[in-house]
Each structure stands twice: as C-alpha cells, then as structure tokens.
Amino acid sequence: MFSFVLPLLMGVPASGGEGGGASIVTSLIPFAAIIAIFYFLIIRPQNKKQKETQRMLEALKKGDKIVTIGGVHGTIQSVKDKTVIVRVDENVKMEFSRSAVSSIERAEKVEKEEKKESGDSAAESEDKKDSDAGE
Length: 135
Known about the structure:
By secondary structure, this protein is of the alpha+beta class. It contains three helices and five strands, in the order H-H-E-E-E-E-E-H. Strands 4-3-2-1-5 form a five-stranded antiparallel β-sheet.
C-alpha cells in the first residue's frame, strides 16, 4: 500500500521516472511568469514612487508652498528634523510631521515654467535659424 501512496503524495508519475523533470519545469514556468508580472507591474513602480517621495521630503526647505495629505495648503516657515511649521494664514502657523506633506506646489509650477521656457527658447532658436537662412 505504501509503495502506491508515497509516489502519489510526492508527485511522481505512476509510469516510471521518465518525463518527471519536464513536468516540473513546465509547472514552474507559470509561477515564474506571475512573479515577474507582479514585480514589474506592482512592486517596482511602488518602490520608485516611495524613493521619489522620500527625496521630496528630504528636500523640503523654508518658503516652499506645500499641500498636506489632509488638503491643507500653506508655506513652510521652518523645517525641523521630523516636523515642519507651515504658515496657513497671516497669523496661523501649524506644525506637521514631514510625512504629512503630500506635494510641493512650488516645485511643480517651476517645472512647468521651465518646460514652457525650454519650449519657447527652442521655438525662438528655430525662428533665428530660419531668419538666418533667409538672409
């Protein structure tokens, strides 16, 4: 009885040992594909976003306009090790944990302006080339 049950529990085919290695490889291929899909679609992008957020939090400085995870908009008055003091209104200052900062408004606007300027300067340089060629 044990000679019949033991091979079934171990997953060995009943018709001898031939072909057993190929079936193991073919059964592992879908698992490897699933792991690769999870890595590239879920784990890797999340790690990138986490690193980007960490860099943003480390780069906080006085004068930055920020938005907190609660939706509070304000300007950083001072930066401490684990907290930031944010001026929300003329006489209102609030202290938040650094991790409560969701985004920096100023950096986003500066990036957009730089893209516009680089696009405008590229268009201007093309216009200069056209006018030089016409002369």
